[in-house]
Amino acid sequence: MGKPQILYVDDERHNLVSFKASFRQFYQIYTAQEGEEALSLLEENPGISLIISDQRMPRMTGVEMFERVVDRFPDPIRMIMTGYSDIEAVIRAINHGRVYYYITKPWKREELKLVLDNALEAFRLKTENRDLTEERNSLLLEAEKQAKAQLQSQFETLKNQVNPHFLFNSLNVLMTLVHDDPDLAEAFIAKLTKVYRYVLELKDKAMVSLTEELDFVQNYIFLQQIRFGNNLRLYSEVPPQKLSECLPPLTLQLLVENAVKHNIISRQQPLTIELYIEDDFFVVKNNFQKREERIPSTGIGLANLKARYAFLSNQQPAFYLDNDHYIAKVPLLPRVTNPDAMP
Fold first, then answer.
1. SS3 category, 32
2. Average pLDDT over residues 232-257
3. pTM exceeds 0.70
4. Distance CA 252, CA 138 (A)
5. In this structure, which long-range contacts are made by residues 97-100, counting pairs with CB atoms below 8 Å and at least 24 apart in sequence?
């Protein structure tokens, strides 16, 4: 760490020489003979911590110089020095130049050294306090941003993950089943109830187990298969030892729903969705057969999922085309003792 930097301003050269000779072993000394030169030195040397100025100088007094300094360079400690008992100048220096200390001439080396060290310590503490305040404010701002993002994430999860079109389609299917197949209609109602109970009960959780997510997606696919029949196929191959690992709630429903929403599903072109684990990622893979008609999509669901992972993991989801398949890979999250306590 270098020596503390001090700027001494005095129109008398022998005073500058004397000051520099007395203190250069302790500090890095800059000198100026008038105010404009001092302002230029401050511009060129942002590391200056302390400014000492003689009061009685031609063209610009010490107080007048400090009045200009305080607006452009507010951080350095300011000290005024004069050999006159000019009480008015001292008061003005304190009120307008915001000086730290008033020094009378002639000064004694040992006494002035103590004053300078105290002033530099005050500068160090002020700087550290400002840095700590800025760091604290930055952390508070980041925490506020994260809290807002988490609330937005929860809101978008509830609003978008199981969209109204799915509910309306399900109710239309149910109306038909009530008349044609009452037993199947009863099973349909039970599955639909489980789907929406899951959404409402787990939407605020940070993570849920694979067991819960897979049970939910099986119920969701059951409802979709009433509509699409064997043209929609789901294959799940997850090792039992992995079922305790976790995902953000409704992750699988979002990815499966996207596959159903954006792909052709017909007897000639059935949609096959595969669920499996690859390394530390859960993979949702489907044959890509994009619908010709444009399906409205805001992209909020996937963006929301990425935002949630930013809170929970150093790894991020990946979504991409691989030849004739669309692949979504989301990081598996380890089980924690209290997942609800996570951000």
1. strand
2. 91
3. no
4. 35
5. 97/62, 97/63, 97/65, 97/66, 97/67, 97/69, 97/70, 98/66, 98/70, 99/66
